[in-house]
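pls ignore typos typing on phone
heme C + seq
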Amino acid sequence: VDCFVALLLAMTRALGQFRRNLLLGSDVMRRCLPPFSILVAICISFCAAAADAPPGALSCSGCHPARKWVDTQVSRLAGRDLGAIVQPMRQFKTGQLDGTVMVRIAKGFSDDEISAIAAWYAAQKE
Ligand code: HEC
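k done
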């Protein structure tokens, strides 16, 4: 929430600057706008990721790509059905499903934690 307030403040301030620049001349405006848009984009993506991620959820994206254009063998979790995350995680835990790293990772999470992580990823649209 703090993050969004800061973003809002920055935007309001930048808008004031923006209007002043319009009066001063479009040259200054043209130079200010690109860095500002980049800043906003970074801030928005950071806020969205950090907002309400349940414990452990952000650790998955070290291997499971957060963006769909990342070319990797490891599947994406974002936007996937809740059950399609919960079920393999439970199976990794019980040993029903074999794997290189997931068996160990899944054992580190309780069923509640797995459900929370799965719900968080399932809610992501992209
Ligand atoms: C160290 C890298 C790594 C991390 C961290 C990681 N995974 Fe995985 N994950 C894999 C690999 C590799 C596989 C393929 C199975 C295997 O070899 O263990 C996989 C498979 C899976 C699968 C089943 C694959 C599928 O496409 O159906 C699920 C679900 C899954 N991971 C969920 C998670 C969740 C949730 C987290 C975070 C708590 C996580 N993973 C963290 C590497 C990782």
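The mean pLDDT is 84. The pocket of heme C is lined by residues 56, 59-60, 62-64, 74-75, 77, 85, 88-89, 99-102, 105, 117 (CB under 6 Å). more later
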